[in-house]
Every structure is written in C-alpha cells, then in structure tokens.
Design goal:
It contains 19 helices and 4 strands. The protein has 465 residues and is mainly alpha-helical. β1 and β2 form a beta hairpin. α6 packs parallel to α12 and α14 packs antiparallel against α15. It is elongated and about 100 Å long.
Length: 465
C-alpha cells in the first residue's frame, strides 16, 4: 500500500524539518529504548549482574531496529515496550535474557521521552538563534527608518522600523533564555521501578547500593534524575515545557500577525517573499497572499492549546500513576516541537526575504505623522508663552480640516495650515513650526534603543548555555 493511501499526519511530510521529524520518529524512539537497556546492563555489569559477553551482545545489536517484527509482537501482547524487548532479545542470542532486568516500562519510556525532548530543545535553541539573527539584520538596516506607529489600529506617533523589529526580537530573546533554562533543568525519571521506590533494584544490588547504582546510570546517560518519582516523572515537567514552547509560539504569532496586517492594503508597507512562479489564488491571478505568515499563525494557534492538555495530564495523574495521559502524549509532545520547528523556520525565511516598501512607508508617514506632531508643537508654543487651551482648540480645528482632505484622497495639508496660523507666528516662525512638525525629528530614542538592543542580542546569542 502506498504511504498516501491512508491517513498521514501533515507533520510526516508537509510541516517541520526532516531533522525534527527524525528526532520524533518511531525509529529514534526505539533506538533510545535500546540504548537505555544497554546503559542499564552496563551498570548492572559493574555490579556483577551481567556478564561481559552479554553486554557486548546487546551493544552489537542495539541499532538493528525491526519495527515490523516488533509491531507483530505487539499485535499479540498489546504492549509496545514488551514487544520491543522480545524483538531485541531475539536478535541477542547471548545477552537477550537480561534485557530490562529490574526495570518497569516507564524506567525506559520516560527517560527516553526526556532524551528526545533534550534533542528537540537543542534544535529549537539553535533555530531560535538563527531567527534572532535574521530579525537583527533588519533591526540594523532599518534602525533609523521612520514610520508611522499604530495604537488601537489607528495612526499614532512616528517610530522606526528598526525599533519595531527590536520589540519583536526582545520577546524572542526572552523565549531563547527560557528555552535554555528549561533545557538545563530537564530531569529523567531515573530507574526506580514500578512505583518509584526502587524496590526491584534493591533486590538486585542491595539496599545499600541503590543510590550509587542509579547515580552511575545518570552519569553514563548524562541525564540528571528526579530524586522522587512515582511510576513516572512528574507530569508537571511536560506542562512547563509545553508552556515555554507555547510562549514562543505566542511571540511568533504576534510578529506574523503584525506583518500580515502591514502587508495588507492600505498599509502596504511590507511583503513576505513571493516566488516568481508562486500562485496566490486559484481564482484571482493578481493575489499575493501572505501564505507563510498565515500558516505560521494557523499552526501557532494549535500550539497555544497544548499546555491545557499537559495541565490535565499533570493534574489527573492519580496517586502513583494512571495511563490516561499515554495516548495523548504520543501526539502532543512531538507536535509541540514539530510546530515550533516549522514556525521558527518559516518566520526566519520571511525575515530573510522580507521587503520593506519605503515609498509606501514614507507616504503613510507623510499622511499621518503631522497629526501626531501637533502634541510637540503645542508644548513648544506654550513654553514660548501661548495659551495652552487656545492652542489646543486651534490645532483641533486645523486637524479636522486636514482629516477631511486626507479622507478625500488629498495630501495632508496640516503642516501648511499650522505654519500659516497668525496666532502661532506670534511665538514661532513658520520654518520653526515646520521643523517641529517634521516626522524624522519626533522619533525619540527609537533609533538608539534599537541599536543598543542589537548589541544585546549578540551578547545573549554568544553565551554558551
């Protein structure tokens, strides 16, 4: 049967990188199970429980994954891990009899899950760095490029494109720091048996040697273990991980949403990369839809709800363990990482090819910025001796007249109107009034703050954490 003759997850072929898919593949999962069995046997050999030739046999066959055979066993036993034990044992004529000695299923599965999560987090950390560098390139390029800012989806005061991008980067930088923190704090269940008491291992190595036994496995794996567990590691760890990934998704969603808005008319200031032969619409040949940005927001929306499931898994893990988290964790944990991988890559590609329509930026600035600069003019006039209330009323009347012109499709006449105001000329010259109404002169610290934050990005990215 062709692989597309039955349902395929879009993450199997459409979304996420091959590298991230490989981490969450069935092959990698089973390979990690086997490596954990080898690690367990290696330490058990140190305690005289496993013979050298048995350990050597396990190591020799560790990578001979045979999923079809394992699934055939599972069809009979209805237990995926024991099916893999049988498959592995059948390949190891010398060492097969000691596989899984002393362990319970979650000693293998939970630790393998954390090792997969560690691999996936390492990838996301590197990808987030690349995204930050792509945004930072735009920060540096447009740090001093004035544009009109918007609050309440209405024109506000001028800012710069570099400062707007720095605001985006600030959120992503915080996400990078949280990714590093959650990665450094990862802990496995360890090898503590059916309810976390290590009773089975105490029988094997003696009560007095249990802590040293588990500590050696931790050293060999390079993975710290929770000191206290039940049959599983605490599912609060999954909740914290999914929350960090969802937070990253929120940052990316906001950026993509903003860029979608700025790409729309009448903004028309940005555009995501659009291929020479790309089709925007099956019905409307002229369309240049922001499909990458829309895809990002669509996937991020799915990511946003996954912490709710992880919360339920943690809160409903009754007593020492129930199995009602198992089925959903097979999809929710991998898909959280697969979504993040896809949206980070996509936004990086967008920023790498993002176009800023400077002519439209200037047009929007000329249309709307004069209104914002009335505040600056009013403060200067009052400082020069004018009556604040009279100035406010005059500026309001001039602004209403200017808005009528703008809404009629004409150029904004506000600067010429206020420059010609006889009452204002008693305190300021027309040229001084015109200068005060200049957009480029009313961006505050936007450019300098953008430049400074660009340096902060370089510092955090270079940190070896």
């Amino acid at each position: 049967m062709d692989e597309f003759d039955s349902y395929q997850s879009p993450f199997s072929w459409r979304y996420a990188s091959p590298e991230m898919r490989k981490i969450w593949s069935e092959t990698n999962k089973r390979l990690l199970w086997r490596k954990l069995w080898v690690c367990l046997a290696e330490v058990e050999a140190e305690f005289g429980l496993v013979k050298p030739e048995q350990l050597a046999d396990l190591k020799k066959n560790v990578e001979k994954i045979d999923i079809k055979k394992s699934l055939a066993h599972e069809a009979v036993s209805h237990h995926d891990l024991m099916a893999e034990v049988k498959t592995y044992a059948s390949q190891c004529k010398v060492g097969g009899g000691i596989i899984h000695l002393g362990a319970t299923s979650m000693d293998i599965k939970d630790n393998a899950d954390v090792l997969q999560i560690a691999q996936a987090l390492d990838m996301l950390i590197d990808e987030t760095k690349a995204l930050l560098l792509a945004i930072d390139e735009k920060i540096q390029t447009y740090a001093e490029t004035p544009c009109i800012a918007f609050t309440h989806l209405q024109p506000a005061e001028p800012t710069t494109y570099g400062y707007r991008f720095a605001n985006y980067a600030q959120d992503i930088l915080a996400d990078l720091i949280r990714l590093r923190e959650i990665r450094s704090g990862l802990m496995g269940k360890g090898f503590k048996g059916a309810v976390g008491t290590s009773a089975s291992y105490a029988e094997l190595v003696g009560q007095e040697n249990v802590e040293r036994f588990e500590s050696r496995i931790s050293q060999v794996l390079g993975l710290p273990f929770y000191p206290v567990t039940t049959q599983t590691y605490t599912r609060m760890q999954d909740f914290h991980i999914s929350s960090v990934l969802s937070g990253l998704g929120a940052s990316i969603y906001k950026i993509a949403f903003d860029l979608r808005l700025l790409q729309s008319q009448p903004f028309g200031e940005t555009s995501e990369p659009f291929g020479e032969k790309q089709v925007g619409s099956s019905a409307m040949p002229f369309k240049r839809n922001p499909i990458q940005l829309e895809k990002i927001d669509s996937l991020a929306r799915s990511l946003s709800v996954l912490p709710q499931i992880a919360w339920q898994n943690a809160a409903n893990s009754i007593l020492e363990r129930t199995l009602d988290d198992s089925a959903n964790r097979r999809t929710t944990i991998p898909e959280a990482f697969l979504i993040c991988d896809e949206i980070i890559h996509s936004l990086t590609d967008v920023f790498s090819g993002l176009k800023i329509n400077l002519r439209q930026v200037e047009t929007n600035l000329a249309t709307y910025a004069p209104f914002a600069n009335t505040e600056r003019l009013m403060m200067t006039l009052v400082k020069a001796g004018a009556d604040r209330q009279k100035v406010h009323e005059s500026l309001r009347l001039h602004s209403m007249q200017a808005w009528q012109a703008v809404q009629a499709g004409k150029l904004n006449p506000l600067i010429s109107l206020v420059s010609a105001d006889i009452e204002f000329q008693k305190y300021l010259s027309p040229s001084k009034i015109g200068k005060l109404m200049s957009s480029s002169a009313y961006i505050g610290q936007a450019a300098s703050r953008a430049g400074k934050f660009s340096k902060d990005i370089a510092i955090v990215i270079s940190e070896n954490k």
